[in-house]
Amino acid sequence: MTKKHSSLMPEAVEPDEVATLLAEAREESDPAEFVVRLGLFAGLRPSEYPDLTASSITVDDGCHRLTINGAKGPRTVVVAATVAEALEAARSGLSGDDPLFPGYGTERIQADISDLLADAGATATSSFALRSYLLKRLADLEDLPKHYVLAYLGALGVTDDGQLPLGWDVEVATCIDRIVTEDAGLLHR
């Protein structure tokens, strides 16, 4: 990333902090690791967590898709394997409109993320630092079209309105799986 663009990037978790942050989240309350995985590897905004329900998750042709009702409009994307695993665990025993984060509002999600960042000793302190990490890592990939990244994250109103090629989100999810392996050392089936 050029210096010009790097100064515009919001505060982000650093790649070498990811494994520590995930380990810290595993030691915390039940949804902490799930919150961290969704932020780091699906790029959710804190305001997008409370609206997630069991019906937000679908499986089609072996791909887990997550429908996110963001401020910029809903988006449905294929998620990385680490997020798919977390989604399956979270929706176990739930159905329909059962919330994935019962009793959690945006403020609680923001506070929990900030607390986890502090407990893990992360340099970033903003509740958007998880999402910013993914934005930064994906933007650094030269082989991934930037408009795919923007559409995946629901940024600036860029959506898949039929203009993106079939499988664009699978390509992004594959890149995220590669990032997960590089930064967190997580292995998948």
Task: Explain this structure.
With 189 residues, the chain is mainly α. Helix content is 46%, strand content 10%. It has eight helices and three strands; from the N terminus they run αααβββααααα. Strand 1 and strand 2 form a beta hairpin. Helix 2 packs antiparallel against helix 3, helix 3 packs antiparallel against helix 4 and helix 3 packs parallel to helix 6. The longest helix has 17 residues. 39% of the residues are buried. One of its GO terms (molecular function) is DNA binding. It comes from Kitasatospora gansuensis. Keywords: DNA recombination.
Spell out the blueprint of helices and strands.
Blueprint: H1 3-6, H2 18-27, H3 32-42, E1 57-60, E2 63-70, E3 73-78, H4 81-91, H5 106-119, H6 129-139, H7 146-153, H8 168-184
Antiparallel strand pairs: 1-2, 2-3
GO molecular function: DNA binding
InterPro entries: DNA_brk_join_enz (IPR011010), Integrase-like_cat_sf (IPR013762)
Keywords: DNA recombination
Keywords:
189 residues; mainly alpha; hpI Integrase, Chain A; three-stranded antiparallel beta sheet; globular
**Beta fraction:** 5-15%
The stretches of 5 or more residues where confidence is low (pLDDT under 50) are: 1-5
Instruction: Give, in order, the helices and strands.
Output: HHHEEEHHHHH
CATH architecture: Orthogonal Bundle
Strands side by side in the biggest sheet: 1-2-3
Number of helices: 8
Sheet/helix structural class: mainly alpha
Strand tally is: 3
If you consult CATH, what is the topology?
hpI Integrase, Chain A
The name of the CATH superfamily reads Intergrase catalytic core
Sheet of most strands: 3 strands, antiparallel
Our count of domains comes out at 1
CATH C-level name: Mainly Alpha
The proportion of residues forming helix, as a percent range, comes to 40-55%
Mean pLDDT: 88
Principal-axis shape: globular
Based on CA atoms alone, the radius of gyration comes out at 15 Å
End-to-end Cα distance, whole Å, is 32 Å
